[in-house]
Amino acid sequence: MSEDINELQNRYLEFIGEREWEEFHTPKNLAMAISVEASELVELYQWHDNVSVDRILDDDDLRERSREELADVMIYCLSMANELNIDVEDAIADKLTQNETRFDPDTATAIARDLRHWQR
C-alpha cells in the first residue's frame, strides 16, 4: 500500500523526532541537504553522454542508485515543506498552473526547436 504525501511527511517528522534531530532541520540546512542530494543524483550521470531512459531502465544498478538519490532529494524537500508549513500538493498544483501560462504551447515549441538546434 502506497503512502500519500502527508503520511510520508508525518512519518519523516516522527523519524527525526525519535532521533532528536529537529534542531538541525532548519531551512538553511535543509536547502543545503537538498542541493547535496541533487548533486549526488547529477553525479551518477556526470561523465556520460545524454543517457537514454531505455539504457537506464536496462541498467538495474544505475536505476536503483537514481531511485535512492531521488528519494533523498524528495525526503529533504518534504522536510523543508514541513518546516515552512507548505502544502506540497497545493504548491505543485500552483506551480503547474504558472508553468502552463508561462510556457504556452507555441512558446514551448519554439524553445524546444532552439534546444534541438544547439544539440546538433
TrEMBL record:
Alphabetical GO biological process terms: nucleoside triphosphate catabolic process
Family matches, as InterPro entries: dCTP_Pyrophosphatase, DCTPP
One Pfam family named in its UniProt record: MazG-like
One MF annotation (Gene Ontology) recorded for this entry: nucleoside triphosphate diphosphatase activity
Superkingdom, natural source: Archaea
Gene3D superfamilies per the UniProt record, alphabetical: MazG-like (1.10.287.1080)
Protein name per the record: NTP pyrophosphatase, house-cleaning of non-canonical NTPs
Native source species: Natronorubrum thiooxidans
